[in-house]
Amino acid sequence: MKQVKHNPALAGPGIMFISAALFGYFGFFTGGLMHTNLLNQFVLFFALLDWTLKGTACGFVLGGLLTLARPVSGNLIYGITGLLSAILFVLIAVMDIMDKQNAAAAPPVLLLIFAAWNGYGSWFGIRAILDLLRPLPDLPSDPGSETRGEG
Question: Which pTM does this prediction carry?
Answer without folding.
Answer: 0.79
